[in-house]
Design brief:
Strands 6-7-8-3-9-10 form a six-stranded mixed beta sheet, sandwiched between helices. The protein folds into two domains: 18-234, Rossmann fold (3-Layer(aba) Sandwich); 238-369, OB fold (Dihydrolipoamide Acetyltransferase, E2P) (Beta Barrel). The chain has eight helices and 20 strands. It has helices spanning 56-64, 106-116, 121-134, 150-162, 180-197, 208-214, 232-237, 242-247, and strands spanning 18-27, 30-40, 45-49, 71-76, 79-80, 91-95, 168-172, 201-205, 217-222, 225-230, 252-259, 262-265, 268-271, 284-289, 295-298, 309-320, 324-331, 336-342, 355-360, 365-369. It is α+β, with helices and mostly antiparallel strands.
Length: 372
């Protein structure tokens, strides 16, 4: 008589180390990703952020095993994943479509990955109870998916993805089908759950706010390549390119020629701040300034800028944001300058058509290579 021993869930230490090294993937003549390299530490939450078609979902599918790389390697905890079928990689996956079994209860849906792995009944029940408690759905265990809201169904999908303690959790636009208020609530839930688990997470989104709210680090994708990877603060304050600056929030970008410590621009010569990326003297460059780093005052009340850079402009747009105001001004060269000021700032009285002076501290700007 042959005795079959039930397979246990993965070890409780969830977080695995992921290495992506010089990975390429093309679809015929169409680019997928080119030379993607990324190291993810155990327990780290890394978001792949970029516009549609930039390569982030292709990277996720390569990790999952739904695609094979043309070149390069992908390793999990030092073991190469090439040639291993998706269902044998031991990865948890959460997608925009919940893909719950409608005829099963919530408990049965969450237990499904454990049944496939032939985890014993007692252990299976304990793991499901733990997962449902973590996503705060213990009271809904015997309901069917149709009896739950979209947000609750997504939490079920999340519980099903981590119930077997995977070393790596992959999420592809998991909140894309939900309304803004519910997305914000679930962002906090996902962050809490993943940190309690110590899970290593690869998260794909095109939503900048979502990436900022969730991530330890963010990889900015553009045309099949990673433009820059870093913490949210690093990407926002020290973008390496105009693309990154533009994608990670609003910016005013002055393009011109770098001349020593100055940038020659159509609106004047400006003292430059810190350099991010490779910028050679005498070449095309750009100064990037965030809206909150720009100050604005009426042209008639301007008292001199001191060591600050300044530009004369005309108010084109004035938007009320409650505790703040957003002004868009046109410089003499036609450059649009976006300024964000407090509601009690004297400049909040400026109206469309008014003449103003916009200024900034050079140290609050970043110099980046100018796009070709």
């Amino acid at each position: 008589m042959t005795v079959t021993t039930p397979v246990r869930a993965e070890e409780p230490t969830v977080g695995g180390a992921l290495t992506i090294d010089a990975v390429h993937k093309t679809y015929g003549y169409q680019r997928g990703v080119e030379g993607i390299s990324l190291d993810v530490e155990p327990g780290e939450f890394v978001t792949m952020l970029g516009p549609s078609g930039s390569g982030k979902t292709t990277t996720l599918n390569l990790i999952a095993g739904f695609l094979d790389p043309d070149a390069g390697r992908i390793e999990l905890d030092g073991s190469e994943l090439s040639g291993i079928a998706p269902h044998k990689r031991g990865l948890g996956m959460v997608f925009q479509q919940y893909a719950l079994f409608p005829h099963m209860t919530i408990r049965e849906n969450v237990a499904y990955p454990l049944r496939v792995r032939r985890v014993g009944r007692d252990e299976r029940r304990a793991l499901v109870d733990e997962a449902l408690d973590l996503v705060k759905l213990s009271d809904y265990a015997e309901r069917k998916p149709a009896e739950l809201s979209g947000g609750q169904q997504q939490r079920v999908a999340l519980a099903r993805a981590f119930v077997f303690k995977p070393r790596l959790l992959l999420m592809d636009e998991p909140l894309g089908a939900l309304d803004k208020k519910l997305r914000a609530h679930l962002q906090a839930e996902i962050a809490r759950i993943c940190r309690e688990l110590g899970a290593t997470v690869i998260y794909v989104t095109h939503d900048q706010e979502e990436a900022l709210a969730l991530s330890d680090r963010i990889a900015i994708y553009n045309e099949g390549r990673i433009e820059q990877i870093g913490t949210a603060e690093e990407l926002y304050l020290r973008p390496a390119s105009v693309f990154v600056a533009d994608f990670m929030g609003e910016s005013t970008v002055f393009t011109g020629t770098l001349n020593g410590s100055n940038l020659d621009h159509a609106d004047g010569t400006f003292t430059v701040g810190p350099t991010s990326g490779q910028v050679d003297n005498g070449t095309a460059a750009a100064i990037v300034v965030r809206p909150e780093k720009l100050a604005v005052e009426s042209a008639t009340a301007a008292s001199g800028s001191g060591n600050r850079n300044s530009v004369r402009a005309t108010v084109r747009e004035r938007v009320y944001l409650g505790s703040a105001r957003r002004l868009v001004l046109d410089s003499r060269s036609g450059l649009a300058l976006t300024v964000r000021i407090d509601a009690d700032d004297a400049a909040s009285a400026l109206d469309v058509g008014d003449h103003a002076v916009v200024s900034w501290d050079p140290d609050h700007s970043v110099v980046v290579p100018c796009p070709a």
